Amino acid sequence: MKKIYLIPVCLLITVYALAQQQIPLNEKQHVDSLENVLRSNGPDSAKANANFQLVEYWKFKDTVKSKTYLMRGKQLAAKYPYFRALAHFYEGQYYFNWNAAKAAAAFKKAEEAFSAFNTPKAHGRRAAAWFNYAIMNRDTKGYEFITRIILEKVLPEAEKAGEKVMLAHFYTQLSTVLMNNYQFAKAATYNQKAIELLQTESPRSTNLLFAYLSGVSIYCYDGKSAKAKPLLAKAKAIISAYPESVNYPLYYYNEALYYFTVKSFEQSLVSADKGIVLAKKYNQKQLHQQFLFRKYEVYGQQKAYAKARQILLDIAKDGTLMATANDKATIYAELSKTSKNLKDYKAAYFWMNKYQVLTDSIHKDQTALKINELETKYRTAENHQKIAALQAQNKQAALKARNEHLYNWLLVIGCLSLLITLGLVILNAKNNRKLAAQKEINYQQQLHELEQKQQLKVTKAMLDGEEHERERVARDLHDGLGGMLAGVKIGLSGWSNNNSDLSGDKDLNHIIGQLDSSVSELRRIARNLLPETLLKFGLEVALKDLCEFYMRDELHIDFQTFHIQKSITLSVQLSIYRMVQELFSNAIKHANASNIMLQCSQNDHIFFITFEDDGCGFDTAMLENKKGMGLDNLKNRITFLNGKFELQSVINEGTTINIELNINEDAKITNRDS
């Protein structure tokens, strides 16, 4: 399927996909249990919490009930500071579906109120408040704002909450945002992380259902229906046991999308019709209109243009999918295109004119050309009608004018021939200029690639030379000077033992102690120069050993690894080890931190390093005019492995460093050199 068809869909799907309700699939049991809490003699805090959960359950189905439970919950929460913060959060949930401004204000109040509580549960609620606040500002601040809030606020708070299920949920939401910005590869990566967590931590849950369905959407919009099919089957296996679930419409939407992707249009219509019935039942206006848009696309593929246009007119009349200028422009453009297919040029011109008002100046010239084209066809159609009327009224005049018309047509054809010839000449000249420009661009690109290759060779030579010199110095220290010092120590010890009158000499014992400390220090230096643990046991064990080496009473180091493979080439393992060694050296020397977190993970040929400390932090602007050998070496190694380096630091709040490496790059350089 051509990817052009996903453009309007991606613009229209966002709000509902990001507003998924975290309600257990067994909804009746869930609601009954909450009602039992309200009828019991339990504490007011428990009843307030039950009321708030019912606010979220009814926010799509019945806003009157939702508000009733909100008011009751607020009354019960009045004497509990935490539940007062929770009241702001669920007030935002109540407004979520119909008043974005009030919902955003409520979620912001909730986030500020939760910041006063340093508990895992409060961190989790704060993450949810930040996320919902970002979604409510989608139309005014855009996807960049949502993405930044998720990465900088939501995910860190979710990690502090320590709930893997919650973290997986926000991975799914991030993948939805990336999908709606056409970054399908990244979206699939985050969604797969969510699926892997949920399959272990929360199988057959609502969160896992959403993750499966999100994967279906991502792969369908990316044209990879073969990957979407098994995820759709897994989603159906979960939800089929709960036929009354409020999430069933979302399943049917993805089922209709899958059938549309594989061009099973009739099956797509059947799924859409099922979803429309349930979306109406559960008052899911956004999703109901998206089902109609899906039917429009199916009718368009079937060339049933009259049905397709009527659906678009209904969508425009409803207004739910026209909340933003971009979405409205999409509907107008589709109405113009469908009217054109119906040869209704007047309507096509009308809708294209409305579309032009909403589009920005970048597309102004192209849009004007289309409008002129439609207007010309419309005027031509009107002229043909007038000519036909005149010919019917006066056939004799038409016969007399035939020769004149023939002459005029010949003249027009001659002029057109000249214009076509001139156009071909101009087009050929333009093509020649473009070809010459392209050759120049290719030449410059080749020069740039040669420079990059040369730079990589120089970097590799420098790094190899540095490691060889480290190895040589380490072996000389260990085998030469280390052996000599150890020999001197043994000799002195033996001599003192053989001379009983000297065995108690304090100065002699002090000298022997100094020799012992010197040997230990020499071995430590040799170990740093040449990590034997790395050579014997591999990268993961070496990094763990390095963390234990730097750990002390006043410094705690948390080391985490994920999927590190032993097949990484030794040179790359050594480079990664040196990077981490440099990070520890800088943190211990400058940060004055109490806690350090080192996280290393591998995804295929990409290796990730995250290094965080809670030290004094610094102003990152200082790095622009300051050069240090340690940071330069670190960046050289990252550049050599075609990696990415990101540093974030706030004074008195610590430093975070993220490194992404392509661990296949060393092999590529080696092959090119050979």
Radius of gyration in whole Å, from Cα? Answer: 35 Å
Average per-residue pLDDT, rounded, comes to 81
The total strand number stands at: 5
Biggest sheet layout: 5 strands, mixed
Low-confidence stretches: 1-19, 364-369, 371-376
Distance from first to last alpha carbon: 43 Å
Strand ordering within the main sheet: 1-2-3-5-4
Helix content: over 70%
Apparent shape: flat
Tally of alpha and pi helices:
27
- Beta content: 5-15%
Enzyme class: transferase
Transmembrane segments: 406-429
Keywords: ATP-binding, Kinase, Membrane, Nucleotide-binding, Phosphoprotein, Signal, Transferase, Transmembrane, Transmembrane helix, Two-component regulatory system
Pfam family, one: HATPase_c
Q: Strands, helices and their partners?
A:
Blueprint: H1 6-18, H2 27-39, H3 44-58, H4 63-77, H5 81-95, H6 100-114, H7 120-136, H8 138-161, H9 164-179, H10 184-201, H11 206-221, H12 225-239, H13 248-261, H14 265-281, H15 285-301, H16 305-318, H17 325-341, H18 345-358, H19 364-393, H20 395-400, H21 402-498, H22 506-529, H23 532-537, H24 539-550, E1 556-562, H25 570-591, E2 595-603, E3 606-613, H26 629-640, E4 644-650, E5 654-662, H27 665-673
Parallel strand pairs: 1-2
Antiparallel strand pairs: 2-3, 3-5, 4-5
Helix pairs in contact: 1-9, 1-15, 2-3, 3-4, 3-5, 4-5, 5-6, 5-7, 6-7, 7-8, 8-9, 9-10, 9-11, 10-11, 11-12, 11-13, 12-13, 13-14, 13-15, 14-15, 15-16, 16-17, 17-18, 18-19, 21-22, 21-26, 24-25, 25-26
Keywords: ATP-binding, Kinase, Membrane, Nucleotide-binding, Phosphoprotein, Signal, Transferase, Transmembrane, Transmembrane helix, Two-component regulatory system
Signal peptide: 1-19
EC number: 2.7.13.3
